[in-house]
Amino acid sequence: MTLHLTGVRLLLITHTVLVFCDIEFLERPQGDSVEFYCISEFNASKPIGLYLKRKWLQPNREVLFMFTEQKPVFNLDVKERIHVTGDPSTHRVNVTLSQLNGKDTDVYYCEFVFLDASSVDEKIPSNMEFFLYVDNVEDVPDNKMDVGLIETCAGGSAVLPCLAPYGSPSAMEGVCLKRRWGRAPVEVLFHSKRTSSSAAFPPEERLHLATGLGGLAYNLTLLKMQPEESAFYSCELLLPGRPDNSARLGRHVYFVSVQGVRCSCTGYPPLLYVLSAAVGLLLIFLLALGVAHYGKTRGDRVKPQPHQASIYEEMVGVRSPNRNGKVAPSYHPRPPLHLEEMDASAPPPLSSQQENH
């Protein structure tokens, strides 16, 4: 699956990124604008309407609704700073949201409405979702926080790199995992120097530390992730003699997006692709072996055989060339002469020879 990034410095994708939709990560400063491209992949019929909704911090909240060939209806929070171009009937609508602030941070998705005569109108979401992150100066006074995106599915895992807060470390004392859901206070999920940890992430069940040289932790894997745990996560290495600020996320923050699809189900299509590719390679290999074997047997059959004279050559005494290209002498006996030929070729009487002399 392809992720489209805009203004993102770092992106990590775990091996459980097998989900049914794509996410485009959009990072914007406060006061800037962003554009959402709503595209319907369902082309069997024309849409009659369109929703733009939020999904994470404000689940299923409608940002706008638009009937085809009619003016859209906006939520009061965005009414004065939203602009729409296009029409749902064309399967594409562009939505621009301006004057962004920290409250606009969320996951957005487009949902097209199709007419269904047999039942209630059918709503089909687009394959693309948008994670909009608006830098909040209040949360990040130095404005140096790097935000990345990690995708996984329900029951899957997410790998967080644990980095030092002040650059490349010379020595580490432990690791700290922090989380923030929306604009809620930062929660410390795990601290290796503390005896207690969050009940939501028991280390023995849901955390796995990957160590490097000297037993130092560099990667922290979150196991058995669930959709309601989608949030900002930060993993930091603890340095000796440095303050530990538990009230803020680290400099390197990752939004972990957990889709509602189970990983065990979504793993089948890629597995089938891998198996199909393996079978295809095996068939190509067997075909190559068959061609090589056929070529070898055909070469053996066309080897030059010793020359055998044809029946015509046997009868007329034609001499065939030998290996050196020379005509070998014929050892075939001369065919018998007829009686008339024998009389004509007989020597004359002795008296006639004497008369000639």
From TrEMBL:
**Parts forming coiled coils:** none
Task: State the residue spans of region: Disordered.
Answer: 318-357
Position of the signal peptide: 1-21
Q: Which residues form the Immunoglobulin V-set domain?
A: 33-112
Q: Which UniProt keywords apply?
A: Membrane, Signal, Transmembrane, Transmembrane helix
- Which top-level group of life is the source organism from? Eukaryota
| Transmembrane annotation, as ranges | 271-294
GO cellular component labels? membrane
Q: Which GO terms describe its biological process?
A: adaptive immune response
Q: Which InterPro entries match?
A: CD7 (IPR039090), Ig-like_dom_sf (IPR036179), Ig-like_fold (IPR013783), Ig_V-set (IPR013106)
Entry GO MF terms: signaling receptor activity
Keyword Membrane listed? The answer is yes
Keyword Transmembrane among record annotations: yes
Annotated SUPFAM superfamilies? Immunoglobulin (SSF48726)
Q: Which PANTHER family is this protein grouped with?
A: CD7, CD7 ANTIGEN-LIKE
What protein am I looking at?
Uncharacterized protein isoform X5
Q: Which gene encodes it?
A: LOC106564663
